[in-house]
Amino acid sequence: MSNVSLNEKIPNNVDLSSDKRLQRALEQWQPEFISWWKDMGPEGFQEKDIYLRTAVSVDPKGWAHFDYVRMPEYRWGIFLADPVPGRTVGFGDHYGEPAWQEVPGEYRNSLRRLIVTQGDTEPASVEQQRRLGHTCPSLYDLRNLFQVNVEEGRHLWAMVYLLHSYFGRDGREEAEALLQRRSGDADKPRILGAFNEPCTDWLSFFMFTTFTDRDGKYQLLALAESGFDPLSRTCRFMLTEEAHHMFVGETGVSRIIQRAAELVREGKDPRDHGAIDLPTIQRYLNFWYTVSLDLFGSEVSTNAANFFGAGLKGRAKEEQYEDHVALDATYELDVYEGDRLVRRPIPLRSAMNEVLRDAYVADCEKVITRWNKHVADLGFAFALPSRRFHRAQGQFAGRYFTPDGTEIDAATFEARKDEWLPSEKDKAYVRSLMANPVYTPGHFANWIAPPARGINDKPIDFEYVRYNEA
Ligand code: BYC
To answer: Which residues are CB-neighbours of 276 under 8 A, at least 6 positions away?
Structure first.
């Protein structure tokens, strides 16, 4: 197992102190990161003591330490999963060759682009969520928000380590730029669409961590297969942390559904009783699921084919497939010929975005099944909309569909969109519920049920955030 240095300026298991140049470069980036964190990280809570977990190793049996910490003092570290001896490239044109410990020259630009795109999402999500602390439903939820935020910060560190270590001056410039783009900024936006969408209420936050973080899971699974071994090892450890983020999202929505269901069962309209009605929850689901579908890129993609052929980005759990070269295989896809959708065989490598999206959609279906258990007796069922609905990337972008996938014209969409996506009225209502944060341990806002259990075996009324105002 790799050695862990926890007492250095930057905790790490990559033997940072043996490479003084790299160590110095990262130590120069560190204050810029902290300055970005203070400006763009959680607003108003930087001086509070938060009960957080910190990664201290990559040992699956005990990689995290829980304690109170002020967020700017969080120990963001660089941790790579242990190397797999004799690891080979698992797919593409280099299938079976030894995995690369350095960046192959011909793939330098593609790899840098993948790492920058991944890295950009991490600070973006922190920026999107930075004001949520002021409207939190409980200390338990507030702590979970900050846990997600600090870990996205660590994931940014993970990508910055790769950029600094393997991409020279270009990498250092990209690492600077990661702190300069801003979510939603018209002049210097974040790279991918979903990461520029406002996430200013807790229903959106829980949908984001259910659906957008789940894109993160699938992209990380695909990058964990990379022939570039340092990227693979980095992503494997990031996946360990990602699981909690999706837990926060799924259980958060689940608790909102439970609260609504309780009221409906009593014959009450949740909106008359300070909770969120089921159709509004479905509209938020429709929005965040579809902007997350866009994160997989176009159905037919030369980029994806090239990434796969080069051995840079594989399929999730590549070992489940038999053919790892995928040169002769095809994928059946509905594609537009003129205005008609026609089923056609597409070269499999070009359809890799769709293959990954298929795995993602199947995982999302399972979440919906779990949510529906809370409403099974009420004659209501949540559903994922068609993957044609409300798309901004790929072949369905610029066309209009109902959530069940029927094509309609722009005017009909415009007239009916408030039935399918959160309207301004919905957003105002949801925000109005959250006007007053709940900071008393063990208390919960009226619109959400308490969780089944606390964090790290602590009770639900534990003081997850020490709200010790002077
Ligand atoms: N928005 O061939 P195409 C996470 C661009 S989330 C804007 O269709 P490709 C996390 C594309 O860049 C996981 N632009 O797509 C979650 C290209 O641009 P250029 C993040 C988009 O390249 C929550 C053009 O459209 N990780 O970790 O096959 C909290 C045509 O490209 C979008 C990754 O994404 C979009 N949605 O695939 C915190 C992994 N989609 O070249 C963290 C790394 C596409 O024409 N990224 N475009 O300028 C990739 O693997 C690929 O870049 C993508 C796109 C899958 C995103």
So the answer is: 203, 256, 259, 260, 270, 430, 433, 447
